[in-house]
Amino acid sequence: MESVECPKCQALNPPERSFCKDCGFPMDSKMKQRSKLWIPISVFVLLIVIAASALVYVDVQYPDYGLTHRLGLSWEILSQKDWLKKYGDYQSLLDKIKDKEKELKALNKKIHTKEQILIRMEKLKEKLKDLEKKLSSR
To answer: Phi and psi of 15, rounded to 5°?
Structure first.
């Protein structure tokens, strides 16, 4: 018959004992199994964290292929009736989005041209001041 060593005091105990005969520490075999479970559990958690961070990275770097896009498509498939009630036809929604994108591009162009005009005005003001100084010095 094989004896079991106490994890606390290293005394040898018969395998049928639940507690160490010297120090009274629990000799439960389930406890030994639990102490070894942390390795696979931590590996599993680490894999989940790596997979989640990869999904977030893809979602941020490539929004058209990321998790949000995939969930949107799966949500559309799962609740097509709700989707149609809320947003109407999918193609019409895409058309609305494209129209909004065109409007934003047009606004950006206007803003860009206004900024260029303001910059040019500032340069012209500076040139005018220089000319006034030259005229006043003569």
So the answer is: -65, -25
pLDDT digits (tens, 9 = 90+) for 14-44: 888 888 888 888 877 555 555 677 788 899 9
Integer Cα distance of 10 and 21 in angstroms = 11
Measured N-to-C along each axis, helices 80-87 and 90-137 cross at an angle, to the nearest 10 degrees, of 40
Distance between CA 131 and CA 107 in Å, rounded? 36
- Percent helix, strand and coil across the chain, each to the nearest 5: 75, 5, 20
Q: Give the HSE-up count for residue 78: Cα atoms under 13 Å, Cβ half-sphere.
A: 6
Exposure letters 50-63 (e unless 16+ CB within 10 A, then b): eeeeeeeebbeeee
pTM of the model: 0.30
Q: What percentage of the chain exceeds 70 in pLDDT?
A: 70
Question: What's the confidence (pLDDT) of residue 131?
Answer: 86
Instruction: Say what the pLDDT of residue 76 is.
Output: 47
